[in-house]
Amino acid sequence: MGLSLLCLVHCLALPLLAASLPAAALLMAHSTATHLALLAVALPLGVVVLWRARRQAGPWPLWLGGAGFALMAAAIALPALDQPLTIAGVALVMGGHLLNWRRR
């Protein structure tokens, strides 16, 4: 539960932090390398947390998180749809973590 909550806070805080620093937001928003680095950190941690939680919370948090990570990976591959895919992906991963958290 602690890692799931930490991931949820991260997913909520990072966009707010980036938006509060306009220069950093401009650099981060349009960089494929930034998206790859963030996904490379978030994916293993999120998968481990949601995989471990499936015993108590059931399969739905894992399915939501997996779909969210797939959308975020698709956002890297499809730059024209970057923002909507990233937002939808983050929302699904956060939904998986919230569902996991509520079922405990």
Question: What's the short story on this structure?
Answer:
The protein has 104 residues and is mainly alpha-helical. The chain has helices at 2-20, 22-29, 32-57, 60-77, 82-102. Helix content is 88%, strand content 0%.
Written overview of the protein:
- The protein is globular.
- The chain contains 5 helices and no strands.
- 88% of the residues lie in helices and 0% in strands.
- The mean pLDDT is 79.
- The protein has one domain (2-102).
- Helix 1 (2-20) packs across helix 2, helix 3 runs antiparallel to helix 4 and helix 4 packs antiparallel against helix 5 (82-102).
- The protein is mainly α and 104 residues long.
Task: Describe this protein with a few key phrases.
104 residues; 88% helix; single chain; mainly alpha
